[in-house]
């Protein structure tokens, strides 16, 4: 069974936050004879999205035509603060997250996930410079300042930027098995340590 992976992008999203997980899910499917994931970027509109530092991307799907995601990736970057306050985006993320098998929050994407109450009572992590801000947004979240990846059941959160690669590899390992994740990391020449993920009890 192929799972749909939707990676949310918006203005001033952090590039590696979405590009790293995209590569992980796409490569894992490529190395698994096309089985695994149908991965794409999703945005509010088809018009180009200007990510941080000037990269422009066009999403594969809009919120309206995106198949129901099995894996939802919510990224960070400077624009996550504005995204967090954008009511239509919040509504779409809440709806997609409710139906998803796994929600992967990368870096400051935890702001958006936390603002929706999805981190309440769960252990979570984020970029090291955003911990205090996230705690204010989601006071009921149990922040792990020592963790690169936190697996709290349906919600998986990661530290800053490159940690999204680790988080995506962890999700691949959960859904397709660690050998597939290890092959993916080896192909990418990425030094992945499965032990970087903390599996936290869900309250």
UniProtKB/TrEMBL annotation:
Molecular function terms from GO: lyase activity
EC id: 4.2.1.-
Classification via CDD domains: GATase1_PfpI_2
All copies of domain DJ-1/PfpI, residue ranges: 4-172
EC main group: lyase
Coiled coil residues, start to end: none
Annotated Pfam families: DJ-1_PfpI
InterPro entries named among the record's database cross-references: Class_I_gatase-like, DJ-1/PfpI, INH-QAR
Keyword Lyase: yes
Gene3D superfamilies in the cross-refs: 3.40.50.880
Alphabetized UniProt keyword annotations: Lyase
Tagged with keyword Cell membrane: no
Name this polypeptide is given: DJ-1/PfpI family protein
Organism: Luteimonas endophytica
Top-level taxonomy: Bacteria, Pseudomonadati, Pseudomonadota, Gammaproteobacteria, Lysobacterales
